[in-house]
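tool=predict chain=A
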Amino acid sequence: MSRHKSLSRMSNHESPMLWGYATMYKLAGSTTTEASSSRDDSSSKSASQATVSPELQRSSIASSSTSNATNSTVVEDVTALPYELVVPLVNQFFDRMSPLPSFSFLHQATVTQRCRDKTIDRALEMALCAITSIYFDKHPEEHAKWAQEAEHLILERLEEPSIFKIQASLLLIRYRAAVGQFPRAFIMAGLAARWAVALRLNYEHSKLTPVAQEVRRRTFWSLYLLEDSFCVGLKEFELFDPDTIYLQLPCEDVDFLQERYISTGYLQPGKGLEPDILGPRAAFVRLAFIRRSIMRLSRRISMKEANLSDLFSSMERFQTDLLRLKTKLALCDQYPDSGSQGVRRSPQCAAMHMSWHQSHCNLYRIFLTEYPEPTPHATVEGISASERALMKDKCLFHAEQIVKLLSDFIQHNNDTDLLDFDAAICAYHSARLILFGTYTSKDNKGPSMQMAISKAQLCLDVITRYFRFSEQLRSMRQELERVVQQHKSWVASLDNRAIAATGTTHKSPPKLSKDAYIRQRLAIHSLLGQSDFVDDSRDAAPAPPPEQALSTTESPEDGQAAPEPSMDGDGRELYLLNDPIMDPSILFGISYGAGSDLDAWAHNAAIMQGINGYLADVDEQYMY
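tool=predict ok
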């Protein structure tokens, strides 16, 4: 399957506004080639022999448990995958996917050896083959069956938690999300989290070998990172309370492969000794924690639960945490503003730096009173215009840095390198922020806007190339395509703005609590937001007689007469606009709503002063 779009070859010397076109051409011209395994067999065998004892014992226990009638029936019903099919997929997984934070929890030498010996956990083997196949468009007629059989094996032994079961579940959850089975992925994540705490994976286990200990840690942290696929900053959907995590952060790959005991520190500094150097893998996990905390602050402000003093004190604390984290990185893991030409960055290092900049974007975005998001700007009205302008400049600077990281990654990395799921989130938001920053600047025409569009196009091409297969990111990709095209149309029609609004279709709104809908504001990529869950609480009691329906069953929120909003094909509310091109909500991708205080927002937004038409609420999809 082709995973890129063709772009015109252009020289960087043709125009200064085309700075990203060489990168974009490489992005479009490169192909997704298969990488053969370059691992040294002898070193793999020795590493496997040194680490086989703790995990092999668990494998033997798991295998012996199939002696009972039920479990043996399950295993016998599943056809074994051919060795010649499994090994290439497993090798491809370790060569290309395991560097990503989401898939770094398996030990290559151990898993590869068990594949050869045919002692690998059956559910894990099938899940590995399924997720690798969907990433690289392999075995399209088979991977769905493998995923289903792996899940069947897992659920048949529901009451027997194991590290293998959690690892297989992690792969299956990512698979279900990629193929669009969002409700199944969401529910399965909760089950995997239950297994993890049942095995006390949130605590250290000092009596294990270095490899078994690190596999255990990485499995837990991959599950922790999975939470960002569902929600950010919502306590009710947390898989783990950070205060109950007493586990060290993941170590670097070189230490993992060489089986060394390494002190990496904890999620929250203060729970143990802090290392002098923080590796990219540990830093990435800690950044996920910081970003969630920032989004909790943003949600508190949005719900008017925090004042200006809280905002500034929290901002200073986050700035300090982010600066401290950066200073703990090794010199080789730093990303200098200059002198980094031609340097190849590992996928995990690139993801870590993008997350660091995205943390700043999320923090300073709170102060962007013109930005079409549901921030109650009455909270920040006490800040002077010059201070808000400074926050805007900082936010846009970090968005630009994300684009630079993406550009450098494409130019200097191999075609076989992949990007983590989080890179798509960073690319999406940086593109929107850059378009917003240019549109609201004094010089929003000509070369400035053309360059902003080229940067946003680069972000879109990254998402298209690396995540074309992902149904989870399809809405994000389509939304960014629309926003980029809208800006192109706006530039082309500066003298003639008579452009028709996007056509709409209708779909019923989500059948969930309106209070929850307003408070939660899920991101555009959220599995929870894309799941078609229905609150059927009304069915728990008999329906009232027709004459009593209004007085008996109508809630205050239902009693307020309001016209049903127009919806698009994805169930999203749309604006009714007299001038869709000049409306910043359309230009920056806001098209439907979640009940924010827009009176204050519109009153303080300078770019809204000349807008005619109706204002709808701002949606949750942009609150990542």
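The CA atoms of residues 412 and 428 lie 21 Å apart. The radius of gyration is 25 Å.
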